[in-house]
Structure formats: C-alpha cells, structure tokens
Amino acid sequence: xxxxxxxxxxxxxxxxxxxxxxxxxxxxxxxxxxxxxxxxxxxxxxxxxxxxxxxxxxxxxxxxxxxxxxxxxxxxxxxxxxxxxxxxxxxxxxxxxxxxxxxxxxxxxxxxxxxxxxxxxxxxxxxxxxxxxxxxxxxxxxxxxxxxxxxxxxxxxxxxxxxxxxxxxxxxx
Length: 173
Known about the structure:
This protein has 4 helices and 9 strands; from the N terminus they run ββαβββαββββαα. It is α+β, with helices and mostly antiparallel strands.
C-alpha cells in the first residue's frame, strides 16, 4: 500500500525563489472530486495530472491529515489531455518549483487562474514524525486545513475566499 506523508505550509516571504532548482507547469483535474467528496459519496479523489511531457492518474484517500493512501499510475500524455479537457470538472493550474534545503526537497506550488496569489510549500516525508529543515521562508503549517487541498481549490478557488479566510492566511505569515 502506498502512503503519502506530506506536510503543507504557507510561505513567510519570497526568499525561497533564490533556491529554485527547476520549475514545471502542472495542470490537474478531478474525475471524482470535491462535489462527490463533500456529499459523502466518494472515499477518494481521482485526478489526472499533466506535468510537461509526463502524465499520471492519481488516486488519493479522501481523509484529512498528513498521511493518506495514494496511488500514482503513469498514463499517456494524450490520454491526460483528453481527460483534462473532456472529463474533469475544472482544471487547476500551477507552477511547481523545486527547492532543496539541506538535502530535503520542498515542492512549492504557485497557483494560476482562479487560485492566483496562493503559494504553498509541500514536503514529503518518510514518517509522520520525521525531522525536516525549517528555512526562514517557511510559514504556518496548513497540512490539516482542507481548504488548501488541491481538490477543494477547484470547487472553492482562492479568489472566492472570504475576507476572513484571507485574513487567517495573512495572520499566519
């Protein structure tokens, strides 16, 4: 069984940009997504993801938290394009920046479109309690706040967040 252990953070400032190793555009859409999850009809999200000339079908448990069951299957790029264009209820677009700190990879997602302005850092860990570096640009942890989950950003994008939701984010950094 594949378990993804991932912690997610807001960013305190832009100083992380100096450490970018590479960046790639990502488009992802959900075949089973937020509406089904909110209605209690789905136990997992199913998404298609296109990153450059690579594509995957991803299945992730619909449970909150930092450790969730997840499966990734490579698929042909042409199939991903069709899935995203024809079968997904909205497509989330972002630029993923790879920043390594003390040998640990942080994936920093800078969202576009309806989620423009939202930037989060994710770090995958080998264990829930595994130590990891905390660079000065790493802000408040939002790992368990489901509004930051990609599946929810399609149904309730950042541009639609209430002033209270944005204030909570601003106060965190």
